[in-house]
């Protein structure tokens, strides 16, 4: 197995007006080593504009990563939304937003196009509620929605969660099957590069119940920092009881990830 392995698009469908689900089929004997945690991250290399196959060979050169990368092919962080057939097929949900290289690739993606999948960063995730968590708070913008959906679908009967989710339009609201008791607040039309995110204000205005034991936040970096401050200073959540991750930064192009630095991804 090499650092960057090829995967072929087998399906590309709009889930909602601003979300495209791409189904990838791993090429070769390698399988995605899923650990089943809802927000598991995947790093993907994309074909350059006007190409249909990613330059995965670039990332497999011995010298890759040992110095400045000249003319590095585009790659980005995403979330594994679903794992099928023992890790040989994966669903990835792409937010459609203006001016994004990966987003624009998803809009034009067709069966047969080939991405590169980074294998050694394969099983990183952040979501780690302590055992005996009673209620959890889940906060996401559209980029965190794939992880949030998978987390909610995996909750056990008896679990309780409150979710705040920001999406571009009413038609981007998604429904999830869950055995748990989940309350949703959908924030429509704010954030996502159009205006300031309404997520921090909504979380700050929320009357958090006494049984809140854990919080997971995945959204734009400035919004996630403000929410993290409130979780700590306003709600008094200990550092091991929450994680707030910046999934992208307004105005910053390229792969980006900013975590809490107090909690290591597993
Ligand atoms: C752990 C992790 C998991 C992630 N999972 C997903 C996922 O499952 N699905 C997903 O869609 N994204 C996900 N992201 C976010 C994704 O990596 C970024 O949004 C990335 O910048 C998209 O690349 P792009 O090429 O489309 O845009 P870029 O070329 O990187 O950015 C171009 C411009 O668009 C802005 N921008 C970037 N993202 C958005 C956005 N969502 N809305 C509005 N403006 C934006 C940038 O600030 C920049 O100005 C994840 C990020 C992390 C760290």
User: What characterizes the major β-sheet?
Assistant: 6 strands, antiparallel, barrel
| Strand content bin | 25-35%
Q: Would you tell me the structural class of the helices and strands?
A: alpha/beta
CATH hierarchy class name of the largest domain: Mainly Beta
CATH architecture designation of the largest domain: Beta Barrel
How many distinct domains? 2
Separation, N- and C-terminal Cα atoms:
21 Å
Number of helices: 5
What does this structure look like?
The protein is of the alpha/beta class. It has 2 domains: 4-118, Translation factors (Elongation Factor Tu (Ef-tu), domain 3), CATH 2.40.30; 135-248, Nucleotide-binding domain of ferredoxin-NADP reductase (FNR) module (Rossmann fold), CATH 3.40.50. Helices cover 16% and strands 32% of the residues. It has 5 helices and 11 strands. The chain has helices spanning 56-59, 101-108, 145-153, 199-205, 221-234, and strands at residues 4-16, 19-26, 41-45, 75-84, 89-95, 114-118, 135-140, 160-167, 181-188, 212-220, 242-248. It has a 6-stranded antiparallel beta barrel. Strands 9-8-7-10-11 form a 5-stranded parallel β-sheet, with helices on both faces. Helix 5 links the parallel strand 10 and strand 11 (242-248). The chain starts with a strand and ends in an 18-residue tail after the last strand. Mean pLDDT is 93; it is low at 262-266.
């Amino acid at each position: 197995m090499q650092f960057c392995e090829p995967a072929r698009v087998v399906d590309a469908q709009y889930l909602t007006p601003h979300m495209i689900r791409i189904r990838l089929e791993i090429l070769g004997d390698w399988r995605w080593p899923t650990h089943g945690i809802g927000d598991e991250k995947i790093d993907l290399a994309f074909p350059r504009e006007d190409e249909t196959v990613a330059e995965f060979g670039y990332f497999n050169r011995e010298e890759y990563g040992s110095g400045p990368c000249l003319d590095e092919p585009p790659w980005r962080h995403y979330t594994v939304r679903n794992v099928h057939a023992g890790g040989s097929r994966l669903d990835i949900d792409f937010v459609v937003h203006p001016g994004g290289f990966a987003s624009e690739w998803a809009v034009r993606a067709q069966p047969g196009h080939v991405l590169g999948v980074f294998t050694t960063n394969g099983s990183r995730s952040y979501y780690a509620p302590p055992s005996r968590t009673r209620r959890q708070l889940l906060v996401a913008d559209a980029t965190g929605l794939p992880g949030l959906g998978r987390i909610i679908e995996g909750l056990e009967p008896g679990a309780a969660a409150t979710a705040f989710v920001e999406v571009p339009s009413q038609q981007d609201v998604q429904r999830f099957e869950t055995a748990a008791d989940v309350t949703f607040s959908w924030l429509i039309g704010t954030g996502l590069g159009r205006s300031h995110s309404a997520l921090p204000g909504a979380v700050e205005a929320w009357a958090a119940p006494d049984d809140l034991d854990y919080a997971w936040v995945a959204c734009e970096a400035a919004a996630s920092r403000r929410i993290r401050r409130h979780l700590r200073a306003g709600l008094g959540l200990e550092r091991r009881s929450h994680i707030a991750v910046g999934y992208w930064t307004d105005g910053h192009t390229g792969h980006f990830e900013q975590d809490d630095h107090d909690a290591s991804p597993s």
